[in-house]
Amino acid sequence: MANHKLDFRDKPINLNERGGRKWVYAKKPSGKWFTRRTIFSYFMLLFFAGAPFIRIKGNPLILLDVANQKFIIFGAIFWAQDTFILALLMLSFVLFIVLFTVTFGRLWCGWACPQTIFLEMVFRKIEYLIEGDYRARHKLDNSPWTTNKIFKKTLKHGIFILISIAMTNTFLMWFIGSDGWVELITSPVQENWSGFIVMLLVSAFFYWVYSFFREQICTMVCPYGRMQGVLLDSKTIMVTYDYRRGEPRGASGNGDCTDCKQCISVCPTGIDIRNGTQLECINCTACIDQCNKIMHVTGKAPGLIRYASEASITGGHTKIWNARNRAYSMVLLIIFSFFVYTLVTRPVIETTILRTPGLLYQDHEKAISNVYNIKIVNKTHNEMPLEIKLISHNGNIRMAGNKMTIKDQGMFESTFLLFIPKDEIKSDKTEVEFGIYSNNELIETYKTTFVGP
């Protein structure tokens, strides 16, 4: 970047010299890449809002029921007992993010992150509609409080509040399901004050983030931007300024960059992409569209700012795959394959049988008895009639209740007495094994202890 002085920053771009907030007034973007991103964002918004209503065999597409320790992810049901499988799924997701970042940079941030989608495609568009483009908004914010300003600010923030409440209720359905949400909002408020207050607090948080905090979530809070420092390399594809072609910049220079600073004017985080990769860059492509417009006006080829890697600019390296992302891909494939294997081979039910705490054995005339608590989780979509038998010893089981039938994805909990003849008790602690049967077919076994004299 010859003949051009770079400013090396030691603070976020949206802070002034005294450490105060410097508001970013981004110009309304437009162009080929913005149109693509808009279409993709609308599909993502439909997914966020519609996922709780989509059903697979009667179950929501995604349900994160933390209270009941039940999780449904793309139709697959996970319970608290499936912690290991969930851990494999989360590890696979983290590795996918790492692989994706190593290969394509912060493409997630600019295209699929809910923070970016809601801010750029919902809240900013409303702001543009009511207050105008960046110059009009800057003028309005710095003007005295007139009737026109009060009307526009009240209208904008009123709509922002309504959208924040709608967002809270939408994401609430991801945790309690659409049916639970309908039941919640149709119940009198006095019956669920705690839930109502939580809804207001979360809505207030969303309103504060998208009305005031905005891009600072990406530049100061989100750790993903700081991960770039260890994940990106010279072969990573990201939004990049071609300095070999653009420098020296300016109208009198020989480079293609006219130094018009239009790429800065549209950046939602306010950075100068010409200064290289920065943690604030979310790869939103607004600067690509704006620069291509200037190139068209000046009669120069587009692509001065484009998706490219440092290696492709300096040496013409255009291959996406290299040893690093191949290694990540292999590890991801192994772990995800292990996840699929454990998911497919997991038992259809999950049984837990434990001696009732605080109770000793009972001595009968010819037998010894222990009291047990039993919990069985049905991981299938079918109702299952069950029967429990002692398969390690001769014994008798007396269940509290006559039927052991579990509804699809349901849970059965009960208590039973186990009687074992005295002549089969050889020590004060004996290992016993139970069999869980469905339609006379053994589907699971469970071992526990039996205490005696």
UniProtKB/TrEMBL annotation:
Domain of life, per the record?
Bacteria
The record's listing under PROSITE patterns reads: 4FE4S_FER_1, 4FE4S_FER_2
**UniProt xrefs under PANTHER family:** FERREDOXIN-TYPE PROTEIN NAPH (PTHR30176)
Position of the signal peptide: none
Q: What is the name of the protein in this document?
A: Cytochrome c oxidase accessory protein CcoG
Q: Which GO terms describe its cellular component?
A: plasma membrane
UniProt-recorded Gene Ontology molecular function terms = 4 iron, 4 sulfur cluster binding; metal ion binding
Has UniProt tagged this entry with the keyword Transport? yes
Q: Which NCBIfam families match?
A: ccoG_rdxA_fixG
Q: Which InterPro entries match?
A: 4Fe4S_Fe-S-bd, 4Fe4S_Fe_S_CS, Cyt_c_oxidase_cbb3_FixG, Electron_Trans/Redox, FixG_C, Ig-like_fold
Transmembrane stretches in the record are: 34-54, 85-109, 159-177, 193-210, 327-344
What keywords appear on the UniProt entry?
Answer: 4Fe-4S, Electron transport, Iron, Iron-sulfur, Membrane, Metal-binding, Transmembrane, Transmembrane helix, Transport
- The segment(s) forming the 4Fe-4S ferredoxin-type domain are 246-276
Supply the source organism for this entry.
Draconibacterium aestuarii
Q: Which SUPFAM superfamilies match?
A: 4Fe-4S ferredoxins (SSF54862)
